[in-house]
């Protein structure tokens, strides 16, 4: 190697250490003319281009060269070509490839695969906070929210990002008060650290979303407005704009304009965020019966991720509303996913197509073992029970309780077993739930179930129920109240509560009434500050024609000639009978039908 080349390499190394990527690129490009086959020099150019976000140039530079698998996979990931990136990273098991693979799984909404990859990585690097945060974010997917709350990672952490992800899981599980509490704690932690001030808008956006989900639209819109006027990051503003359109129930033109602004490339939205906005544009179009535009949005969504569950619900909704029953049925069956079978079964049960629903149920039980959402399990079991398919409802609840430690599901399962006289199985279900958690409602159901067949179990668990305040049962006469008296009191309390609620609603409606913006119109010359000067006209309420001072405008009309037409009497013309006219006569006797004026008809 020549002295000049050595000096260039030393200079290049200094530029790399100082992080001047443009200078590194220029120098390495110049050096590669003399050393075209130097692999390290080529790698330096590639890294400089990646740091300068010139990804297309990187791909062109790597053509015909091997040994750059990670760089190529990373560049494809940055260009959002996730499937191509995953194809490369799947074939390698080194740590950088595994990290990139886990993140690609997350971007493709393959949350279970991402969780599995991050869990494996944490086994060898337990104290890595970034891995923990990425793992907590991967748990925010359908069927995984319950696992988030029970994971030890979230039990005693004070990191704001972990707390934020926990709040997101709680809001998806509709535990809104708990979610708000965690978000307020996160807000306090961020406010105490000046370096994290920019992250405050992300937390505020989630707080607004929780209020929105609780139907407290005024509070949600107030926070959305604050974020849109702030210096928050473009992607946060874009998501907030989308939520604002839904909260305000915007008209078509304004809604689509704002949602298209949110989709702008500068906002750097991820695939899921783009999907959500495109679906909302499609829904707005469909509500205004612009069906062609709605189907165009579905095609765009399929171009991003055709296997997305929310997209499946959106497409099925449009096909169902258009009464294309065979199309949505074939579409959902082709998906071969539990969520698709569950959705199809709900639609069939609502249409009372029980035989078709039974066939779909069999397909769902034999499908890939992916859990449905807890609310879907509950809804399907209710529909099956209503349709008289109790055995299938019990089977659905059993599968649901295998995946979730959800109180409502377990309680529903136990109570349905009791209704069908399967008392022993119901006792086992309630006791299984109480092995790890204690709940007064479940204990009460267990005591009620066991009282008739296994009184010793009922007695054992009844001691764990909260004690009743016996004194509260006595009235002012120091005697135990009758059941009728207690019921009367409860009904009176309920009536009072209803009255107060109604009064509150009426007050809120009156407050929301629009105030008059225009000034009131006063009579001419009237001074509102001095209403009695001048005094108002006492005849102001009478019609003008009946007032004293009224003078009719217009020319004076000649009085109409009255009397019979034809020959006129002599006296009427001032002529004496049998004599001459007293005055020169200008009268002319007009015979009937003579001398009529030519009057034009009105058209």
TrEMBL record:
Q: Record's family?
A: Belongs to the SRP72 family.
Task: Kindly indicate where the leader peptide sits in this chain.
Answer: none
What Gene Ontology cellular-component terms does the record carry? endoplasmic reticulum; signal recognition particle, endoplasmic reticulum targeting
Among the GO molecular function terms of this UniProt record, one is: 7S RNA binding
Q: What is its main location?
A: cytoplasm
| Described purpose of this protein according to its UniProt entry | Component of the signal recognition particle (SRP) complex, a ribonucleoprotein complex that mediates the cotranslational targeting of secretory and membrane proteins to the endoplasmic reticulum (ER).
Keyword Cytoplasm listed: yes
Q: Where do the segments described as Disordered lie?
A: 509-603
Q: Where is the Signal recognition particle SRP72 subunit RNA-binding domain?
A: 506-552
Where in the cell is the protein located? Cytoplasm; Endoplasmic reticulum
Q: Please list the residue ranges that the record marks as compositionally biased, kind Basic and acidic residues.
A: 536-548
Q: Which UniProt keywords apply?
A: Cytoplasm, Endoplasmic reticulum, Ribonucleoprotein, Signal recognition particle
Q: Where is the composition biased (Basic residues)?
A: 511-522, 549-560
Gene Ontology terms: biological process: SRP-dependent cotranslational protein targeting to membrane
Any idea what this protein is called? Signal recognition particle subunit SRP72
State the species of origin. Stentor coeruleus
**Annotated InterPro entries:** Signal_recog_part_SRP72_RNA-bd, SRP72, SRP72_TPR-like, TPR-like_helical_dom_sf, TPR_rpt
């Amino acid at each position: 190697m020549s002295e000049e080349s050595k000096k260039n390499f030393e200079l290049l190394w200094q530029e790399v250490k100082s992080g001047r990527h443009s200078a590194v690129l220029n120098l390495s490009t110049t050096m590669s003319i003399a050393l075209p086959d130097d692999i390290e020099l080529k790698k330096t150019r590639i890294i400089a281009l990646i740091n300068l976000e010139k990804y297309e140039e990187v791909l062109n530079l790597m053509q015909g060269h091997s040994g750059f698998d990670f760089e190529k996979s990373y560049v494809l990931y940055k260009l959002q070509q996730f499937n191509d990136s995953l194809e490369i990273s799947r074939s390698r098991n080194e740590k950088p490839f595994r990290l990139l693979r886990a993140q690609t799984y997350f971007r493709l909404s393959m949350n279970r695969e991402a969780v599995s990859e991050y869990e494996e990585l944490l086994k060898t690097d337990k104290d890595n906070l970034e891995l923990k945060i990425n793992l907590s974010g991967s748990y925010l997917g359908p069927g995984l929210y319950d696992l988030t709350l029970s994971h030890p990672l979230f039990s005693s952490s004070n990191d704001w990002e972990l707390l934020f992800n926990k709040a997101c899981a709680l809001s998806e599980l509709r535990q809104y008060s708990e979610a708000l509490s965690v978000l307020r704690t996160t807000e306090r932690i961020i406010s105490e650290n000046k370096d994290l001030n920019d992250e405050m808008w992300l937390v505020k956006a989630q707080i607004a979303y929780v209020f929105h989900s609780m139907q407290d639209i005024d509070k949600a819109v107030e926070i959305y407005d604050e974020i849109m006027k702030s210096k928050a990051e473009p992607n946060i503003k874009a998501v907030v704009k989308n939520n604002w359109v839904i909260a305000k129930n915007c008209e078509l033109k304004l809604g689509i304009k704002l949602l298209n602004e949110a989709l702008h490339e500068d906002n750097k939205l991820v695939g899921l965020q783009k999907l959500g906005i495109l679906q909302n544009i499609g829904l707005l179009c469909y509500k205004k019966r612009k069906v062609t535009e709605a189907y165009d949005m579905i095609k765009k969504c399929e171009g991003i991720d055709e296997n997305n569950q929310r997209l499946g619900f959106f497409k099925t909704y449009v096909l169902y509303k258009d009464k294309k029953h065979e199309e949505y049925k074939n579409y959902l069956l082709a998906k071969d996913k539990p969520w698709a079978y569950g959705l199809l079964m709900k639609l069939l049960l609502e249409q009372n197509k029980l035989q078709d629903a039974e066939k779909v149920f069999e397909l769902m039980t034999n499908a890939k073992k992916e859990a449905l959402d807890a609310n879907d399990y509950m809804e399907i079991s209710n529909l099956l029970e209503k349709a008289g398919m109790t055995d299938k409802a019990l089977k659905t609840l059993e599968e649901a309780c295998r995946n979730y430690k959800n109180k409502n599901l377990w309680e529903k399962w136990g109570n349905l077993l009791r209704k069908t006289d399967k008392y022993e199985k119901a006792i086992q279900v309630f006791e299984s739930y109480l092995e790890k958690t204690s709940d007064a409602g479940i204990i009460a159901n267990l005591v009620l179930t066991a009282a008739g067949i296994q009184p010793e179990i009922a007695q054992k668990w009844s001691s764990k129920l909260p004690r009743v305040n016996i004194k509260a049962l006595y009235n002012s006469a120091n005697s135990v109240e009758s059941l009728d008296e207690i019921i009367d009191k409860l009904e009176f309390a309920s009536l009072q509560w209803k009255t107060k609620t109604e009064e509150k609603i009426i007050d809120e409606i009156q407050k929301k009434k629009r105030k008059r913006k225009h000034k009131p119109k006063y009579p001419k010359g009237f001074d509102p500050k001095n209403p009695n000067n001048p005094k108002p006209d006492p005849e102001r309420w009478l019609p003008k024609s009946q007032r004293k001072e009224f003078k009719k405008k217009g020319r004076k009309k000649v009085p109409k000639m009255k009397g019979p037409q034809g020959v006129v009497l002599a006296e009427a013309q001032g002529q004496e009978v049998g004599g001459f006219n007293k005055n020169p006569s200008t009268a002319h006797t007009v015979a009937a039908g003579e001398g009529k004026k030519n009057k034009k008809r009105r058209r």
